[in-house]
What does this fold into?
Amino acid sequence: MDAALKQALLELDCASLADVDKTIRVMDVGLRAINHGVKLVGVARTVRCHEDFLAVIRALDAAEAGEVLVVDTQGSTRAVVGELFSMEAQRRGLAGIIVDGPVRDVSTLRTLALPVYARGLCPVSGTIRELGALQVPVVCGGVAVNPGDIVMGDDDGLLVATAAQFRALVAGARDIEAREKELRARMAAGRGLTAMINLAEHVEALQRGAPSKLAFKFDD
It folds into this structure.
């Protein structure tokens, strides 16, 4: 991922990109941010394991700055990431950790600048004897993630796409955010939301069975 794309994604919200392309890969709502208010943008380094975190250690040892550990635990019920792994990931300059399974030591994780997402919590850790698999296609949060995919996350959730797919969405997302900024300013000044969208026209068209799209409108 080039620096320009990374900076563009850091400046945008996941919601804006998803509004441009509602078919984008989005991880399911069961994966939640452990530490809120931090932004994740990085290159996927994938891990597959089950009730064992040796593969996570191996991936962490090989990971490079700017990468995101994307861990498919295949339904594990025991934690495969905790404070030490997360602190080491932050020290190495990783962009984040996503675990489709449990993590632990959340009191420390919540103090880190490193974004961490997980499906749940468990104080008991897994074993350390299974090799697992590294840098293979995985399923995380219900979507396919390939090594080298770009992962983006904020408090709303997680998106996955190729660099080219994200790059194609940036201009549209910027336009959406500019229009929404204007709407917020007008609402703060007392304007009503429905007066600034084509609600009546949209409803009337749908009632007639005609194609229509709800859209912003600025008449001044």
Summary: The mean pLDDT is 96. The longest helix spans residues 163-188.
